[in-house]
Design goal:
- The protein is mainly alpha-helical.
- The chain folds into two domains: about 190 residues, no CATH class; about 130 residues, no CATH class.
- The longest helix is centred in the C-terminal third of the chain and has 22 residues.
- The strands form three sheets. It has a three-stranded antiparallel β-sheet.
- Helix 2 packs across helix 3, helix 2 runs antiparallel to helix 9 and helix 4 packs antiparallel against helix 6.
- It contains 14 helices and seven strands.
Length: about 350
């Protein structure tokens, strides 16, 4: 991606902020600045920006379990703040920011203030040597090399030459930042699927109406099926469409990972992993029955194409249990390594 050009602004230096990045804080610092600049703010409290950094990255770390790297201080701060502030995994960004920007918790304040010694001046390193904090303050307040903001004890001030550029191009600049962040996090999580869609919490999850119709056909044909977790009977219209491997890991609603399940157990299972030694065989048998029935009763059903995403070269009639397991075992292992817990049997 290329940043929008503007004469007399050193756009190439802004782009260079994300070169040789060794932590996530620059991405979230810039996203936080853009959010305020978009509102027309030019004098911005540092503590508010640090709170915004945590709020922006909260869902990625806590819900999707994307790793920022073992040495990443932002992820470490989030983990400490979560317990200290008693915030939920799925708290929304606004609530998190409000809590953190007004907190009296000394440990939270300490975690946020840590970034003051690392983030605001180091972001300006493409414009001048920013290793020394005092020099960085002096150079920035002179807007040396047309740097984007000046540093002060408790706030930053957007360079007037950059203010309108940030406000006018916020959407493109955020996309540029998220694109670079996704590339960076993919290197830290090489086997985790769909990193870009785990950076922003979607306001609305897609409904599963089509997937429910798929399973309605199966249940109608069989009369009923057993929930693989509770062994209770499931009838049409009285079940939850359940992600065998949690949505928080796979980040999709493909039919090969979905089964009908007891609604109460589905709520209990939440984003936990199923122990494969106990549940994979009944899961596979239910999927196998579904494929056979849909191929017979609704052979043009578009959801059959979902299976081709993991079995592109196989006839669906010849997918055996071992081939299915070979797809699921690595995903379960990777999800577990990234912090997803197994539910207790």
């Amino acid at each position: 991606m290329n940043l929008p050009y503007q004469e007399e602004l050193p756009i190439h230096l802004l782009a260079a902020c994300f070169n040789k990045t060794s932590a996530t804080y620059k991405f979230y610092w810039f996203l936080s600045i853009l959010g305020r600049a978009e509102l027309g703010e030019t004098k911005i409290n540092k503590n508010d920006l640090f709170a915004e950094m945590v709020a922006h990255s909260w869902f990625t770390v806590n819900y999707f379990h994307v790793s920022f790297g073992k040495q990443d201080k932002l992820q470490q701060a989030i983990e400490k703040i979560k317990w200290g502030e008693n915030l939920t995994v799925d708290a929304d960004r606004g609530s998190i920011f409000k809590r953190l920007s007004t907190t009296n918790n000394k440990n939270t304040i300490k975690e946020l203030r840590y970034f003051n010694s690392e983030v605001p001046h180091r972001f300006l390193s493409p414009w001048f040597r920013a290793d020394d904090l005092n020099s960085a303050h002096e150079y920035s307040q002179a807007y040396l090399n047309n740097c984007p903001y000046s540093l002060h004890k408790d706030y930053i001030e957007i360079n007037p030459n950059w203010a309108e550029y940030f406000k006018r191009n916020t959407r493109l600049l955020k996309d540029f930042c998220y694109w670079n962040l996704a590339m960076y996090l993919q290197t830290k999580n090489p086997n985790v699927p769909d990193i870009p869609n785990k950076l922003i919490r979607s306001p609305i999850r897609k409904n599963l109406n089509e997937q429910r119709k798929f399973w309605d056909i199966v249940i109608e044909e069989l009369g009923s099926v057993n929930c693989i977790y509770t062994n209770s009977r499931i009838e049409k219209g009285h079940y939850a469409v359940e992600h065998f491997i949690p949505y928080a890991f796979v980040s999709h609603d493909l039919i090969w990972n979905l089964i009908p399940a007891n609604p109460s157990f589905n709520s209990y299972k939440s984003d936990k992993l199923p122990p494969l030694d106990k549940y994979f065989e009944p899961f596979y048998k239910l999927q196998q029955s579904a494929m056979e029935i849909i191929l017979d009763k609704s052979p043009k059903n578009k959801l059959l194409q979902d299976y081709l995403t993991i079995f592109p070269s196989l006839d669906l009639k010849h997918i055996n249990q071992q081939k299915f397991l070979e797809q699921f075992q690595p995903m379960i292992t990777i999800a577990s390594n990234n912090g997803f817990e197994f539910f207790k049997v």
